[in-house]
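Researcher: Next sequence.
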Amino acid sequence: MKLIRLIFSIAALFIIAYFFPIHGQSYPEIWKNILYGVFHGILFIPNWIISYFDHSHLFKASSDNVWYNISWWLSALVSVLNFIENIYSLFKRKN
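Model: Next structure:
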């Protein structure tokens, strides 16, 4: 059951990342930058894999905004740790 849930969540993230590509522009509103940074950070893993095959697809916007970068790094870290935890719980033995 965990494997099916993991496969569907990864597929959903790839679909979202493919249909909502990252554009390199910066936005003047601070909250918009923070929200885009969180959204792009959550989709870090699928965007990174897609950008490996399609070089026009970015995994991080080239924004010079500090708030975008902070929110992107924090949410990307949480996303990667969540992915590692899901893989670990999939293969963990039950005692």
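Model: The mean pLDDT is 83. The chain has one domain: 2-91.
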